[in-house]
Design a protein that fits this description.
The chain is of the alpha/beta class and about 220 residues long. About 50% of the residues lie in helices and about 15% in strands.
Length: about 220
């Protein structure tokens, strides 16, 4: 299967992508991983992307598209993939269509993880990270530490990352609604979109997603 995963920040795309990719035996291709891998290996695309990032600028679509194309052409992705974070806008979606068309391929589904904005804000703005070990993550509502502001594991101070501040989260949501959400309508025009609620336990959402994908593909 060839799947695009879409959803706002805080929808749990990374978590669901890992589970779905394992269940479907296809690689999980994340934009973040693509950038890190290319920069780490100092590929030409990685150097180019880093030059934009170091200057505080957005990496142009054509660089992101080229990285995605290179990854999708690797052996493990020939029989399918799950894209997470790409395409990020309609221009990238159109480029992906052209890429696949050239190879005589097409997408099977676009899985839209639906989460209300206020739930996104609650999920992200409530996160607290241990200063001693960033792997120790808490949440003021869902996973509160025994003592407020103190890590249960090591006693380190818990803090809120700048990216998790409510104002920043709302700005990220605005960017999602303006730039990325339009691809849902774009793919609805191709009858590819499968929408599920991303509220609930992780395994429940995964099961919901698997059933929805099966129905969506079977209905075509």
């Amino acid at each position: 299967m060839r799947i695009v995963l879409v959803g706002p920040p805080g929808a749990g795309k990374g978590t669901q992508a890992a589970f779905l990719a394992k269940n479907l035996s296809i690689p999980h291709i994340s934009t973040g991983d693509l950038f890190r891998a290319n920069i780490s290996r100092q590929t030409e695309l990685g150097k180019l992307a880093k030059s934009y990032m170091d200057a505080g600028n957005l990496v142009p679509d054509e660089v992101t598209i080229a990285m995605a194309k290179d990854r999708m052409e690797q052996k493990d992705a020939l029989n399918g993939f799950l894209l997470d974070g790409f395409p990020r806008n309609v221009s990238q979606a159109e480029a992906l269509d052209e890429m696949l068309k050239t190879e005589g391929l097409k997408l099977d589904a676009v899985l839209d993880l639906e989460v209300p904005d206020e739930e996104v804000v609650k999920r992200i703005a409530g996160r607290r990270i241990c200063r001693n070990d960033s792997a120790h993550v808490y949440h003021v509502t869902y996973k509160a530490p025994r003592q407020e502001g103190v890590c249960d594991e090591c006693g380190g101070e818990l803090y809120q990352r700048d990216d998790d501040a409510e104002d920043t989260v709302r700005k990220r949501l605005d960017v999602y609604h303006t730039q990325t959400e339009p691809i849902i309508d774009y793919y609805k025009g191709q009858d590819l979109v499968v929408t599920i609620s991303a509220l609930g336990k992780v395994d429940e959402i995964t099961q919901r997603a698997m059933e929805a994908l099966k129905r969506g593909v079977d209905d075509k």
